[in-house]
Task: inverse folding
């Protein structure tokens, strides 16, 4: 099994990513660090805990992380994911999931050291915790087996500005630092926007009980106008594609690129700039997902959900 730490801001698609990782036989989730993003960090931490309670995985440690970006002001996305950062009623988390007594960034460093060379860090929120972890431990990239990031839109349009995707836009300075220094695999909107479950598959999912009801809400977190805007038939489950790719190396096609994240204020804040033509002559500093096997993704997420909900 691959040990994986999820840095997250749940978030409906985060919730499905977490579920996918916890249920996958080849992954061992060693913990979660939480970050501001879809909602303030107190809410995303509470959501992460509630998800663990719903899934009866209160053994997984949660570390509360950064409550704001490195330099810019906090902006959240409750208008998309629902009040409190997630759609639907979640259980009130109990003492079993009380966060560990260490900041999310330090937790990342501790886990990277404990699993030196083996740990996959899946970062599916703004990159503040990862940038702070890198500041604490400059050898972080060497300690990790892989850093996989949901963020950016290298070849297509953004979802916050025409150029910028939400996670990179939220904390552009953190994203810039991490992309530059951590050799990440970047999984952006170019591929995640199509990571949907068809409505027909959605309808057949068991919806009895609290988990079934929550899953249904998480899968339908976009309003109709959003679906219209992007010409897709159901919500993009961005973050789940990242964890699917961690579990299954056939899931994504990636290419090495030289890339950088814009940190100036304005339309290009948080934009992932990728040197497609090689005009800078700079060496690649990471990989970008250029295509995904969407049937494979739908099959994995669909069967995982079916199995879990029938249990
Ligand atoms: C990303 O932003 C968040 O709203 C989602 O959870 C995902 O991580 C998509 O742009
Ligand atoms: Ca997220």
Result:
């Amino acid at each position: 099994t691959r040990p994986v730490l999820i840095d997250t801001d749940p978030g409906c698609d985060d919730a499905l990513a977490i579920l996918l990782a916890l249920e996958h036989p080849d992954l061992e989730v060693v913990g979660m660090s939480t970050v501001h993003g879809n909602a303030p960090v107190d809410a995303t931490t509470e959501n992460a805990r509630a998800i663990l309670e719903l899934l009866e995985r209160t053994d997984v440690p949660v570390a509360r992380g950064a409550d704001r970006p490195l330099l810019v002001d906090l902006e959240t996305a409750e208008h998309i994911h629902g009040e409190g950062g997630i759609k639907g009623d979640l259980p009130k988390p109990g003492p079993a999931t009380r966060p560990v007594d260490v900041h999310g960034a330090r937790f990342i460093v501790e886990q990277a050291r404990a699993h030196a060379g083996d740990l996959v860090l899946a970062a599916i929120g703004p990159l503040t915790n990862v940038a702070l972890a890198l500041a604490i431990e400059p050898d972080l990239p060497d300690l990790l087996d892989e850093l996989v990031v949901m963020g950016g839109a290298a070849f297509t349009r953004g979802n916050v500005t025409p150029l910028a995707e939400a996670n990179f836009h939220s904390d552009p300075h953190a994203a810039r630092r991490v992309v530059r220094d951590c050799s990440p695999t970047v999984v952006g909107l170019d591929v995640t926007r199509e990571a949907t479950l068809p409505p027909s598959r959605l309808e057949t999912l068991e919806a009895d009980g609290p988990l079934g009801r929550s899953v249904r809400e998480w899968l339908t977190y976009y309003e109709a106008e959003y679906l219209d805007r992007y010409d897709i038939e159901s919500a993009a489950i961005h973050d789940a594609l990242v964890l699917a790719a961690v579990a299954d190396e056939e899931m994504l096609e990636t290419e090495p690129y030289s890339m950088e994240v814009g940190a100036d204020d304005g339309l290009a804040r948080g934009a992932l700039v990728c040197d497609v033509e090689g005009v800078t002559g700079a060496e690649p500093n990471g990989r970008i997902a250029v295509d995904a096997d969407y049937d494979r993704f739908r099959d994995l997420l669909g069967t995982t959900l079916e199995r879990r909900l029938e249990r």
